[in-house]
Amino acid sequence: MAAAPDLVLDPSLRDWVLFPILLVMILVGILRHYVTQLLQSTPKQQDLLAIREQQALTRGATLRANGKFIPQYSFLSRKQYLTQAFKEGEFLKDKESFLNKDEPKAPANPLAEPGGMDQMMNMLKGNMVMIVPQTLLMSWINFFFSGFILMKLPFPLTIRFKSILQSGVMTRDLDVRWVSSISWYFLCLFGLRSVYDIILGSNNSAGGGMDMGGMGMGMPGGGGGGLPGMQPGQDVYKLHCSEAENIELASHEYLLDEIEDRLLLKYEMY
Amino acid sequence: MSPSELTALYERSYAFITSGTAARKLETGELYSVFELHFYLALLTSHDVEAAAILTTLSDRFGSGSPRVAVLEALNIEATETLAKALEFIDKRPETEIGAWKRRIAILKTTAGSAPATMKTQYVTELVKLVDHVPSDAEAWSELAHAYIDAGLYSQALFALHEVLLLVPLAYNINALVGEIGLKFSSVLQSQGSTALAEDKLVEAVKFFLRSVELCEDYVRGWTGVLVGSTRILQQSKPTADVKLYQLVQEMARKQLQKIVDTKDARAEDLAAAEMVLKNYK
């Protein structure tokens, strides 16, 4: 061992910098959780005709997937009805306007749709809740504690960890085990997820989107909302027409055709 | 479910909710689902006060705007006050709430039981409107099917039941129900004189019964259906179906039912039914 004199940290660094940063981070996380909950707007109810429009597509898909479970005549009558109804725009939300003018509408601006706007606002809110406190915290630490060494890890690490643990400290020869203030902030930022889980229960939104890498929790609060498989502004009539084509192409293979034989074989009656 | 079973279930659910340790292991969402179930149990076992307490908890948490809470609220009014009041409450909800809509239909059904025929039409009309808007709701289709069965409109009932099968193809009870309606429909057709069609329906009914026992091997209702259906096919004056095949099917159903009866592998009432059918269809 070289006789290099070890650094001695002032205990007040621990009491007045290390713990306060940790505490502030936790409190900000909890605050963020509640603010996110407050900002979350309740998902808008669609009107009844929009539900119908969407459900019609589901019905078509179900018929194609599970048609084999019903007799042929039953399948064929449904097939005929659905293809015709889809093509005539029977299930469209604004059936009247569809029937009155035949010229195709220009693709609507996604921003103009109230649903799309809502979703965007939600995303924006979520991001603001993430970004604002983080900017504040980071500038707070940078302003007051830049270049501080806060603690020493009790285990040795390779030199590669230097950039992670000692950002903001320009000393090249310092042992990797020393952790700088800004690095402590980042460690807290990425590592507090499980602490929040304990305090707020799982599925909280305290960690914001910071846990995307590897935690596998997905964006809390984001997503959801809109119709599955349907972007705002998409021409619904086209979707319905393509569903009609799909149904037209679907062939029917009745699963119960040879069920007698199947069961007789199973119970060894032959 | 019999009242004693219901009470037992209620007690178990009560113990679970009040135990703390078991309930705490659940995710919050799951816990509220358990609360919702317990609410139903409490209402069914006439623990009104407790139901009201749960309802308060849920509406405190989710607000009165929640469609799911609204359904519970309507149920609570229905159970503790009058149907008219519940109907009034539901009418105030937005029309897009499918749950509230279904409650309204249920109330219409209850009142239709004693009321003149117009009320019954209203009940069925509402149901038809519901399945038109939400065709992916198997419950609604099944309800509609039962309404048609009550009215004796078997062809329409079969249509609705086929729709249920499209949504939940593995439901053996629905498969057996399709078979039963097929049997009834076939005898109606027979009495009207269209023998060929009647036999088609009969063969189809047996297929559905067979499907139900394929899905659930010791389903007494399914096996009895197979036995009854295949016997009727063989009783046709000049059957077009494969006689030999249905003799085997009949034999198989009889064997399986006998096995179930011998091993007592079913509920008491099912066993009694199986024995009776075996005796009648020797």
UniProtKB/TrEMBL annotation, chain A:
The keyword Thylakoid does not apply. Keywords: Membrane, Transmembrane, Transmembrane helix. Its main location: membrane. Pfam families: EMC3_TMCO1. InterPro entries: EMC3 (IPR008568), EMC3/TMCO1 (IPR002809). It is a multi-pass membrane protein. It is found in: Membrane. The chain crosses the membrane at residues 16-35, 129-151. It comes from the Eukaryota. Belongs to the EMC3 family. The EMC seems to be required for efficient folding of proteins in the endoplasmic reticulum (ER). This is ER membrane protein complex subunit 3. It comes from Myxozyma melibiosi. The lineage of its organism: Eukaryota, Fungi, Dikarya, Ascomycota, Saccharomycotina.
TrEMBL record, chain B:
It is found in: Endoplasmic reticulum membrane. InterPro entries: EMC2-like (IPR039856), TPR-like_helical_dom_sf (IPR011990), TPR_EMC2 (IPR055217), TPR_rpt (IPR019734). Residues 89-190 form the EMC2 TPR-like domain. TPR repeats lie at residues 138-171. Coiled coil: none annotated. Gene3D superfamilies: Tetratricopeptide repeat domain (1.25.40.10). The keyword Endoplasmic reticulum applies. It is a peripheral membrane protein. The keyword Ligase does not apply. Its main location: endoplasmic reticulum. Signal peptide: none annotated. SUPFAM superfamilies: TPR-like (SSF48452). Pfam families: TPR_EMC2. Keywords: Endoplasmic reticulum, Membrane, Repeat, TPR repeat. PROSITE patterns: TPR. PANTHER family: TETRATRICOPEPTIDE REPEAT PROTEIN. Part of the endoplasmic reticulum membrane protein complex (EMC) that enables the energy-independent insertion into endoplasmic reticulum membranes of newly synthesized membrane proteins. Component of the ER membrane protein complex (EMC). Belongs to the EMC2 family. This is ER membrane protein complex subunit 2. It comes from Myxozyma melibiosi. The lineage of its organism: Eukaryota, Fungi, Dikarya, Ascomycota, Saccharomycotina.
